[in-house]
Amino acid sequence: MSLFTRTIMAAEPVTSYDGLVIIMGLGLVFVGLICLIAICYLLGAILKRFNKNEEVKPAPAAPVAAPAAPIENRQELIAAISCVIAEELGTSVSAIRIKSIKKI
Question: Which listed residue, of 19, 29, 67, 87, carries a Cα 20 to 30 Å from 76's Cα?
């Protein structure tokens, strides 16, 4: 006899209760998950009821931003921007031409 046949013969015989245990375990898990979902919906409904009683105050309007101050030294700003772009692209600053700058 080979090792494989000895291992199979040594295994316990399959009983009719094994399938029942598997089905009961899976069923219990799904029933538990369904109960958790129901509890979450119930708590959500309860919290919505409590939140409806509170007055909702409108948020204050955002302050209007002051107009941007003009840039005093525009050449230094363009030089700094072109250096950053050249460093990021890995090229020389002389290979970059900036045509316009717009504030976003």
Answer: 67
Residue 63's φ and ψ, nearest 5 degrees, are -65, 145
Domain that holds residue 103: 72-104
**CA distances (Å), origin 56, targets 26, 51, 53, 84:** 45, 9, 9, 47
Token look-up 């089905």 returns 23
49/78 same-domain check: no
pTM of the model: 0.37
Structure tokens of 100? 């316009």
Question: Both 51 and 76 in a single domain?
Answer: no
| 31-56 pLDDT tens trace | 999 999 999 999 999 988 887 766 65
Give Cα separations from 93 to 35, 39, 69, 86, 98 (angstroms).
65, 63, 28, 5, 10
